[in-house]
Amino acid sequence: MLSYTPDSSLAHRLDPRTKLAVQIGFITAAFAHTTVEGLALLTLLALTILASARLSPFSALYAYRFALPFLAIGPLIEGITLSGFDPERTFETLLASYRVLLILLVSATYVRSTPVRESRAAIQWTIPGKVGAFLGMGTAFVFRLLPLLVADLKRAREATAARLASERAVHDRMALLAVTGVDRALNRADSFSLALRARCFAWNPTLPQLAFSWMDLFGMVFAVGLFGTVFV
C-alpha cells in the first residue's frame, strides 16, 4: 500500500497545490486524447512524473494490483455482443482502461510525495469555508485509515490460511474474510474516534504553512500546458 515516504526528490519539494494542478491537468489531457498516439505521449509523461518522486513504475503497479484485473477484464466484457465478439469495441475500451492506469500512476506520485497534513492544507486553501474543512478532514482520514484497513485484511487472510481455511469452499472463505474485515474496521473506527477526542480534534486546526517556490513555477507551467492540450 502506497503512503507518504520522506525524501528530497523534486516531487517532494513541490507545493501540494502544484501537484494537484498537475494531476488535474494530466487527467484532463488523458480524457481529451484517448488515442494510441496520445496515450503513448502520456505514458512518457507519467513515467517522468513517477521519476520525479523516485517511484518505480513496478512499485506503483504493485500498489494498484487489486485494480488491474478489473481494468483488464473490462475490455473483454465490452467486446461481447449478441452477434459475437467486436474487436473494435474491445480496443476502444482497452485504451480507456489504459488511460485510467496512467492516471493511477500519476496519483501514486502524489501519495508518495505529499504528507497528509499538507494535502489537507492544500484542499482547505483551494476550497475555503466548512466545505473545504470537511473535504480536507475526510481526505486526511482516508489517507491515515486506508493503509491500516488494508494491512488488517492482509493479516486476517494470512491468519485464516494458517488455520487451513484454504480447504474450505470459496464462498465460505470470502464470508469469513468479509466478517473479519468489517469487525476490524469497526474496531479501528472506535479507536480512531477515541484518539480524536483524546487529541481535542478541531475543525480548524493549525495546518502547515504552504508556500510556492521557484520550482513550482515550472510545475504550474507544466500543468497549464497539459490543460492546453485539450484545444490541440
Question: Keyphrases for this structure?
Answer:
2% strand; flat; 10 helices; 2 strands; 232 residues; mainly alpha; two-stranded antiparallel ribbon
Write the layout of secondary structure elements.
Layout lengths: L9 H4 L2 H17 L3 H17 L4 H7 L4 H12 E2 L2 E2 L1 H27 L2 H11 L2 H34 L7 H29 L15 H15 L4
Antiparallel strand pairs: 1-2
Proportion of residues in extended strands? under 5%
Shape: flat
Supply the helix-strand structural class. Answer: mainly alpha
**Distance linking N and C termini:** 37 Å
Task: Output the helix-strand order.
Answer: HHHHHEEHHHHH
- E-strand count: 2
Radius of gyration: 21 Å
Which strand order do you get reading across the main beta sheet?
1-2
Largest sheet: 2 strands, antiparallel
Q: Total domains, how many?
A: 2
Helix content: over 70%
Low-confidence stretches: none
Give average pLDDT, whole number: 81
Number of DSSP helical runs: 10
